[in-house]
Amino acid sequence: MVRMLALVVAVLGPVLWGRGLALQGGMLYPRESPSRERKELGGLWSFRADFSDNRRRGFEQQWYQRPLRELGPTLDMPVPSSFNDVTQDGKLRGFIGWVWYEREAVLPQRWTQDLGTRVVLRIGSAHYYAIVWVNGVHIAEHEGGHLPFEVDISKLVQGGPLGSCRITIAVNNTLTPNTLPPGTILYKTDSSKYPNGYFVQNTRFDFFNYAGLHRPVLLYTTPTTYIDDITVITGTEQECGVVNYQISVQGSQHFELETRLLDAEGQVVAHGEGAQGQLRVPNAHLWWPYLMHSYPAYLYSLEVRLTAQTTAGPVPDFYTLPVGIRTVAVTDHQFLINGKPFYFHGVNKHEDADVRGKGFDWPLLMKDFNLLHWLGANSFRTSHYPYAEEVMQLCDRYGIVIIDESPGVGIMLPENFSNMSLAHHLEVMEELVRRDKNHPAVVMWSVANEPASSLKPANYYFKTLIAHTKALDPTRPVTYVTNSNFDVDLGAQYVDVICVNSYYSWYHDFGHLEVIPMQLATQFENWHRTFQKPIIQSEYGADSIAGFHQDPPLMFSEEYHRSLLEQYHLVFDQKRQEYVVGELIWNFADFMTDQAPLRVMGNKKGIFTRQRQPKAAAFVLRERYWKIANESGHSLPYFR
Ligand code: GCB
Q: Which Pfam families match (predicted)?
């Protein structure tokens, strides 16, 4: 046991040390403004995976002290991207441990000479644990692969002779029982079967553990006294829109703040002064979801102007935040947006594609949003982790409603419910709410997917987690997603909306489509009888291999896929008259998983292939979603 722990520590290194870092400051998305510049560090970085037995050669040889290429061979690695599928090396594809990224950034002279400028390095996502050095100086560590972190590097780049800086980032994809998602390193010690030191990583979630620098890495500037965070909470009073705002400033106590709210035409509709206040907008345009209104996704702009009083005179900082005025509420059988019943007809997604894995990619993102519009989808769940900030911004702009999920997936073993796990989960919820709180598209938080909620410690775990999330954000409902295989789950007493996944006629009663209506109706009735809460069918679906045809339908054919969905729809159409408030297909597109006998080069439950081509099921859903949208009388032909 002790030996095992020692080995695990050897592989993970600092993954086990970095607990309890308190959340500091805001996490405003870095936008350009008259007082702020940004410099993208995308492109090719130098890269090396540390294949040494203990995975610690990089630390022993201090790979951060000198350019990586001087200490051995390097690869060119694109950022953002997962590293796994970029090369022809199978060992790198399945690599577990530390990989090292490095690049030189050339800085504009003003950034390095002007001591009134603050230079910040921001990493959109590094999966899973990251350590960052600038010019060999250790400056940051971050745990968690799906949320951004940043660090002020002004002192390191200013005042010296250098106009450039060397950024080194070591990233470790090892998952432990206390990471989110959790995983286990299993050492195979039978020397007749495995070489010395052989280990594998086991996880209880169904997607490939892609790793690397997944989202943009960039530098941006602010003045030294700067707008650090903005929180808006919106509401309505009769015809009047209300925007409550709170602004935090760092760097000085001597400043003034002005706010102006501009409509989509750029007209000022309200203004205020000071760090907090309320802006009132008569006859406000509300933010409505796509297909729920003839002018969906209306965004105002909140312009914040900070004027700091310095010895050299006043120094301004500007930040503009898009604001959608809308309300969210839940009754015992409805999900209300702006007081009107909202029905989720949407998808579950993954950040996943050929070659780039989980790497952020604009063409892919736009293709996905065009497909959502084509489909008539009004919503998605960020299964099973927070998505890139640019995704959330597009949802605001297009009116796509989001259930924003934490990386709490695969929480199945008793050790995943430890106090250490809970503490980390609470911290992740704080990071998530801090990042996404101002997005009108986000209408609910999901703290986890299919945790083993019948285990004894689960009750305390979820009670605490949900209460904490509600305290962080009292304006949005909170859920965790459960599975119909689990008995009616008492943890659901803490959630506002029941989200349930089921795979009738797929993982059980396979081949028997005829039992779906009965089993699905029973599921809904049991959950609603027990909790009197609205229910979302948060996953359902079947695998199909594009191009496989069989009629009468057999499993894995496109015909079985579509017939299975049609059986579900019969029941949704009855129950949505009562308390079912949504249906989210599993999954938007085929995606990569670990290799397993139940997976054919990944999970094939996509209604689109991994290359985003429609299968038969996509046409079934398209017809259905547009039919549902047309019931409201607000469908928008220009998106079709
Ligand atoms: C589920 C999980 C999802 C899986 C899906 C499946 O319940 O939430 O992550 O991919 O089932 O296809 O098995």
A: Glyco_hydro_2, Glyco_hydro_2_C, Glyco_hydro_2_N
DSSP 3-state of 483: strand
- Answer yes or no: is the C-beta of 473 below 6 A from any ligand 1 atom: no
State pLDDT tens for residues 193-245.
999 999 999 999 999 999 999 999 999 999 999 999 999 999 999 889 999 99
Q: How far apart are CA 99 and CA 97, in angstroms?
A: 7
C-alpha span between 72 and 68 (Å, rounded): 7
* Phi and psi torsions of 290, nearest 5°: -50, 135
What number does the ligand 1 atom closest to the CA of 541 have?
A: 12
Question: What region, left, alpha or beta, does residue 338 occupy, with left being phi > 0 and alpha being psi -120 to 50 degrees?
Answer: left
150, 351, 389, 450: the catalytic one is 450
Q: Check if 150 is active-site.
A: no
Return d(Cα 269, Cα 158) in angstroms, integer: 41
Say if ligand 1 is within 6 A of residue 450 CB: yes
The pLDDT tens digits of the residues spanning 397-437 come to 999 999 999 999 999 999 999 999 999 999 999 999 999 99
The two three-digit tokens of residue 251, written as one number: 């760097």
Determine whether the shortest distance from the Cβ of 224 to ligand 1 is under 6 A.
Answer: no
Ligand 1: which residue has its CA nearest to atom 6? 206
The C-alpha R_g of the chain, in whole angstroms, comes to: 25
